[in-house]
Amino acid sequence: MARGPMISTLLRVAYDGGGFHGFARQPGLRTVQGELEAALQAIYRLPVLTRGASRTDAGVHALGQVIAFDPPFAIPDAGLRRALAGKLPPDLVARDVWGEAGDDGQPVQPRFANAGKHYRYRIHLAPVADPLTRRYVWPLARDVDVAAMRRAAAAFVGEHDFAAFRAADCQATTTIRRVTAVEITSHPLVHPLAAWPDACELHVDVHGDAFLKRMVRIMVGTLVEVGWGNRLPDGIAPLLRGSERHLAGRTAPAEGLVLVEVRWPGR
Amino acid sequence: MARGPMISTLLRVAYDGGGFHGFARQPGLRTVQGELEAALQAIYRLPVLTRGASRTDAGVHALGQVIAFDPPFAIPDAGLRRALAGKLPPDLVARDVWGEAGDDGQPVQPRFANAGKHYRYRIHLAPVADPLTRRYVWPLARDVDVAAMRRAAAAFVGEHDFAAFRAADCQATTTIRRVTAVEITSHPLVHPLAAWPDACELHVDVHGDAFLKRMVRIMVGTLVEVGWGNRLPDGIAPLLRGSERHLAGRTAPAEGLVLVEVRWPGR
């Protein structure tokens, strides 16, 4: 029987990472992939395996993660979106649903088919941590030199060997990665408190093609050490030639990181 | 033995209401007052009873609640603040500590000694709920007419009989209350998503001397019904002459409400 090209179903999903042991399915643990596959199995009444663009760590959030799977039978996009809204838990939302054929009629592989990623790291600068944002920011009571952090961040842009900026158990076969932009911006707080007139939220926005395990969090931890005056801005460039992990800075906490967007061709 | 006037200790506290069964202590339940008194008992090694300015409902947050207690012995403000930082859970923060004598040398009663309160209600307007803010906002997928809500809100300002805007089990002896301002403002989202270009956050800021149980949440629920076109802006004034509860609108969810500030004379 002749068949047409394989049409994969794609989902754009957002989640609060605080309640998940990361993206990747793990037996006995609540994970994003596990919850998605349970919802899809309840809808299709058949096991469904999903493929994500990014394996976010435990505690890391996402607003624009992209997932693909090969449906056992066709359900119209709008109907699948409604069905998912009824089956997914409140901390995991399917924002968008669409169908797409992969290259050469193969299933879509989001890890390779995406057009780059945008991560945002949120830091709160205030003398006392705000209990209403603590799940989503790194609270710092000690002020940072933002201008020094911006000078340091410029060194990350381009193609470099990020070996110093990856987790000890990172499995990647090459440590060469390309970062296209790092922007540091300061924002007023959602709840400005009169008692903390200088309090603000820093966003470290990192754009790139692909990332090593913990890469963004180690970049941010190193930038904060620059902001505190414990490292010089010029100290970043030498770390980007395949240095050892211990020469870079601390790993910033998972809560502050959001996968804002997996860019997707044509969308 | 002659004694000077009673000096009460005051605390300005912030909390994430999501993990508490409200402010007021209740046997066997986790409450803000219960956690504060447990921390103070651990510090003073004696039972300590606290008095709050506002009995916030289960799920309602606070940034500037004020608490008073009468310490069994004196501890310097800075030392007490450090001790509380070590004893309180991460969702409850003591922002400020100071000592004060009440009128006529009596203990300070924050419920009566405060200079007014400022509540903020947060509404997210977006076609899909954002999982990263769901604990702190009321997500509305259906657009609202903000101009109509503002016209309606003006009717609340002044001294009125708010009987229609209180919980069925409210114990207050009078339902006359004075609201000094209601402001409705629109704000960009912390995480603007390209897919939701019109998404925004509405703040309903309510200022007043004192409030009945659930009063702000019923005011906001009624304003949203105006925003949806289910009520006319002119329909608010007749409700403020001692109407029955069922004539006002729904009670907005607790998660969206924050006690931003209890105003305090001289601070």
Describe what is shown at a glance.
Chain A has 267 residues and is α+β, with helices and mostly antiparallel strands. Helices cover 19% and strands 28% of the residues of chain A.
Could you characterize what this model shows?
The first copy, chain A, is an alpha+beta fold and 267 residues long. Chain A folds into two domains: 7-113, Alpha-Beta Plaits, CATH 3.30.70; 117-262, Alpha-Beta Plaits (2-Layer Sandwich), CATH 3.30.70.660. Chain A has five helices and ten strands, in the order βαββαβαββαβββαβ. Chain A has helices at 32-44, 77-87, 110-113, 146-154, 215-227, and strands at 7-15, 50-52, 61-69, 92-101, 117-125, 138-140, 158-161, 176-187, 200-208, 257-262. In chain A, strands 1, 2, 3, 4, 5, 6, 7, 8, 9 and 10 form a ten-stranded mixed sheet that branches. In chain A, strand 2 and strand 3 (61-69) form a beta hairpin. In chain A, helix 1 (32-44) packs across helix 2 and helix 4 packs across helix 5 (215-227). Chain A is globular and about 60 Å long. The two termini of chain A are 33 Å apart. The mean pLDDT of chain A is 93. Chain A binds chain B through residues 12, 14-16, 61, 63-64, 90-93, 95-96, 120, 128-132, 134-136, 187, 190-191, 193-195, 201, 258, 260-261, and chain B through 12, 14-16, 61, 63-64, 90-93, 95-96, 120, 128-132, 134-136, 187, 190-191, 193-195, 201, 258, 260-261.
Keywords:
homodimer, 267 residues, alpha+beta, Alpha-Beta Plaits, 2 domains, 5 helices, 10 strands, globular
* Major sheet attributes of chain A: 10 strands, mixed
Structural class of chain A: alpha+beta
CATH architecture of the largest domain in chain A: 2-Layer Sandwich
Residue runs with pLDDT of under 50 for 5 or more positions of chain A: none
CATH fold-level name of the largest domain in chain A: Alpha-Beta Plaits
How much is the average pLDDT of chain A?
Answer: 93
**Discrete helix count of chain A:** 5
Largest interchain contact: A-B, 32 and 32 residues
**Oligomeric state of shown chains:** homodimer
